[in-house]
Write a structure and sequence with these properties.
Layout: H1 6-21, H2 30-38, H3 42-49, E1 54-58, H4 63-76, E2 79-83, H5 91-100, E3 113-120, H6 125-132, E4 136-139, H7 147-150, H8 153-166, E5 171-175, H9 179-182, E6 191-199, E7 224-230, E8 233-237, E9 250-258, E10 262-269, E11 272-278, H10 283-298, H11 303-312, E12 319-325, E13 328-333, H12 338-349, E14 357-362, E15 388-394, H13 398-407, E16 420-421, H14 425-435, E17 441-446, H15 448-460
Length: 470
């Protein structure tokens, strides 16, 4: 790269700054669109500067958190991660992250050995493999999500299997507890690192009704589960053909759980036992930590460095983000599909706090949320019966969310027995905060674009940083 790069890089950087100055967004996509349209060859030149290789993290849930956990580990191992940490996970988001870390000539400004660490939209993973030629690919999980974009889980798993077999990275990191992902390993021609849970106090002995993997990927016979940790993730076996969950290389055990406050995790890592305390709760975050540890295992990072990295990790905006407002507390948990929403409900109900729960549920149906909102009918809202003090619904589909809760017989206290419907997110937040008592917690459960809307509102009030800084 040289002087002729300055106009393109300069324009891209200026767009990022302008977007932030005018509060049009974080500039996490627009700069990349410029480079993609005008100078797509820059991508190859940037990737060649990342001598530590490129890591792609894909799956339905947990991508952003897994990337953040992995970045903390690699940073302490002497690498300099370049990542799309705000979650813009299409090619434009990756290019924007590279623009931000480059100088005016397009040279990446790195303090150590550069490694590209990018979360990737699950629908575009096949294209990204060819464009980025990653050293490591991480597959976190596959759940039903945005069916109008991705189709059924099995179809996406088959597409991944074809492209990973034909264009394999050097190392494939896979969640052994997800049958659809574990089956991909069968044909993979290079190195594989498997991660999974061995025990958890949240385990159950049968699949929930909304589980997305009931049949064997090899013979299509019904799977039998000895234990289920989260949706269809667990220990499974096919009685018909004998195929079963493979043994993880990096295995974890949930040893302590305190609602959203923390999660104690014991990890078997390269013959050593690590005990880490995560500043977030929930089974899904145990899986995120194991995925990050599995990447570290592939990079031969010492166990003590893995412990250090996971110990200092901080969650991204909207991923169990806590905001204290005097004597009231707001906790934001992103929800975007039945599996994730069910885990959020279970986490809220296990928060260790007496009294009914206060909820603000924000449902949007923009493109990035998925236009089809029928998925809310697969969420186990009936678990909230008799456990809710206040419920407010908001967003573009606030009325439909309230209807779903009505059918689930989720009602508040005598003061507010019915869900309060307020489509305007700002007003809905004010109503909810006004109605909860000092010492109470308001759980805010937004879909993806609703989370961005909420974050802008909170940032303008000085309650949190803009999402691209959080």
């Amino acid at each position: 790269m040289g002087l002729n790069r300055i106009p393109v890089i300069g324009a891209a950087k200026a767009l990022r700054s302008t977007a932030r100055l005018l509060r049009l967004g974080g500039g996490t996509a627009l700069p990349g669109l410029v480079v993609e349209a005008v100078a797509p060859e820059y991508l190859d030149e940037w990737t060649q500067q990342l001598t530590g290789g490129i890591i792609l993290v894909s799956g339905t849930n947990g991508k952003t958190t897994t990337v953040r956990m992995t970045a903390e580990i690699l940073l302490r191992a002497g690498y300099e991660p370049v990542s799309n940490r705000a979650g813009s996970n299409l090619l434009r988001g990756i290019l924007s992250a590279l623009v931000e870390r480059s100088d005016w000539q397009g040279r990446l400004v790195l303090g150590g050995r550069g490694v590209g660490l990018f979360e990737v939209d699950e629908g575009t993973l096949p294209q990204m493999l060819g464009r980025l030629r990653p050293h490591v690919v991480v597959l976190t999980n596959l759940f039903r999500d945005q069916l109008d974009r991705y189709g059924e889980v099995e179809a996406l798993a088959r597409a991944w299997r074809r492209v990973l077999t034909g264009t394999p990275p050097e190392v494939l990191v896979v969640n052994a507890d997800d049958p659809n992902l574990a089956a991909i390993v069968d044909d993979f021609p290079k190195d594989v690192v498997l991660f999974g849970l061995e025990s958890s106090p949240f385990a159950r002995d049968s699949l929930p009704h909304a589980a997305d993997a009931r049949f064997c990927p090899r013979c299509n016979g019904p799977l039998s589960y000895a234990v289920v940790y989260y949706s269809h993730l667990g220990k499974y076996r096919c009685p018909d053909c004998g195929w079963e969950r493979p043994v993880p290389d990096v295995a974890g055990e949930v040893v302590r759980a305190q609602g959203i406050e923390s999660l104690g995790l014991a990890i078997q890592y390269g013959g050593e036992l690590l005990e880490v305390e995560l500043p977030v709760g929930g089974t899904y975050n145990a899986y995120n930590a194991l995925a990050a540890a599995a990447v570290a295992y592939a990079y031969r990072v010492p166990a003590r460095v893995v412990r250090q990295g996971l110990g200092v990790f901080q969650p991204a905006f909207g991923r169990q983000q806590v905001i204290n407002l005097g004597r009231r507390r707001v906790v934001t948990i992103l929800v975007k599909n039945p599996a994730g929403f069910n885990e959020a409900i279970n986490l809220i109900l296990s928060d260790g706090r007496d009294g009914p729960k206060n909820l603000l549920i924000i449902l949007n149906d923009r493109v990035n949320d998925g236009r089809d909102i029928s998925w809310v009918w697969d969420v186990d809202f009936d678990l909230l019966q008799g456990r809710v003090g206040l419920v407010v619904t908001s967003g573009l589909r606030a009325a439909e969310m309230a209807l779903r809760l009505k059918y689930a017989e989720v009602a508040g206290t005598a003061d507010t027995p019915e869900p309060i419907v307020e489509p305007d997110i700002r007003r809905a937040l004010d109503i909810a905060l006004d109605k909860i008592r000092p010492g109470d917690t308001l759980y805010v459960l937004p879909t993806y674009t609703a989370l961005l809307d909420l974050q802008r509102i909170l940032a303008r009030r000085g309650l949190t940083r803009p999402y691209w800084e959080a």
